[in-house]
Amino acid sequence: MKAKWIGSVLIGMLALGMVQPAAAEETKTIEDEIIYDVLVDRYFNKSIQNDYDVNAQDPADFSGGDFAGVVDQVLYVKEMGFTVLSIGPVFSSATYDGQQVLDYNEFERHFGTKEEFKTLLEEVHDQDIKVMVDVPTQNLSKDHTWAVENPEWFEENEDGTLALDTANSDVQEALIETFSKFVQEYEVDGLKLQNADQLDAGFIKDFSEAIKEIRNIYLINDVEMEPVEGLDAVVLPGAEEALRNSYKQFDQGSSDVPAVMEKSAGHLIRVDSLLGSRFTADIVAERGFPPTRWRLMATQLLTMPGIPIVQYGTETAMNGEALPESHQILNMAVDEELIDHITNLTTLRNSSAALRTGDTEVLHEEDGWLVYKRFNDEESWIVAINNTSSTQSVTLPADIIGSDKELQGLFESDRVRQEANGEYRISLERELAETYHVTDETGFNKAYIVALAVLYIVFMIFLWVVWRKGKQRKADEAAKNKE
């Protein structure tokens, strides 16, 4: 990356300058979060005590990941800048992904004990990260503990799993009681209702009210659907497909992206999925280069309105066309360039209210050349993404940027100043993205020039002193030789 260290320093300085006071933490909402979505079994195997019949060679079997492994790698999540760690289902299950639940009142033995789960919560909270747990109800094991005594609560799916009838009042009562106790005992910060589009809307509302009476935690879903009362955010329909189609290869066009951004505020936005294929699979099918494609996509995802959900393995360009291939064990021994790029973007987003919840204005969109503005009353950003096969330029008028401003690029070290005609011209080479911070034009930095002058004078004095000492030493040696 061009002048990579300069960009990182600038981002760090901007982050320090835009850090909100501690009191602001009290008003944080889900729109201020960045969610990192993992599966415990596929993350990191720390403890061998719970490796019961583990077979890491079989992608459909348990691989050994556990609560202790999540704790061991929590700094990895922290350093990447994520604020919510979603760890999937944690209950006793017939499958590694935790969906085919056997018993809501027991933890999956491959993952660890209740004490280890509490340790996970404490350690993750110590890093100022929230913890979210999935609640499966529509793909349960046929051996679920409720199925024997209450078979009328269930409907059988085509694959032989069971789905709870959440329109049944007894089912509603059982689920609300079970998860109310869970939230009371364990300090989780959020619940994700799986397959929420298949749940009774009245149940979702009642479930939300009961849980939030205990503690005001986040409640979200995991599939594309329209908003429903009781959920703090839902996955925006159509966003994943539109973004994938726009960025899987260059020159794909970006005409669908502005429409997505127009609707994305307050919604969950994702481009990789744990439900099926990975975005990398789309890239490979188009004969694209995953690191470049992902850099552009990450810029889009982390600077647009909405609540980003980043699936584990995104930072390593994990591949996979279908389950369980798309649920690979996380490989952390990879090139860190994409990880660094994601980290820089999350650092900006966490530090900037404008990038999280500010207004959005699309300034230019043409055949994969996209430029938009994120702003509020305090700050403005210009995001430029050139997803084409040639260098692109755009001229922005002063009424968009302001007069006597400059655009400081953070990744490509580009600086754009106002031209004589009052306009600003942005140019980007092919397949690059840049995020510009709009600041007052600095002109010559007098303090910097003075510092250089002082440094020069000090250096010259140093040379003079060295020369004088050398001359004196030679004189002393000559006098000594005469004696």
Automatic annotation (TrEMBL):
Single GO MF descriptor: metal ion binding
Signal peptide: 1-24
Keyword Transferase tagged: no
Transmembrane regions listed in the UniProt entry: 447-467
Biological processes per GO annotation: carbohydrate metabolic process
Entry annotated with the keyword Plastid: no
Known cofactor(s): Ca(2+)
Pfam families linked to this entry: Alpha-amylase, Alpha-amylase_C_2
Alphabetic keyword roster: Membrane, Metal-binding, Signal, Transmembrane, Transmembrane helix
Occurrences of domain Glycosyl hydrolase family 13 catalytic (ranges): 37-349
Name this protein carries in UniProt: Alpha-amylase
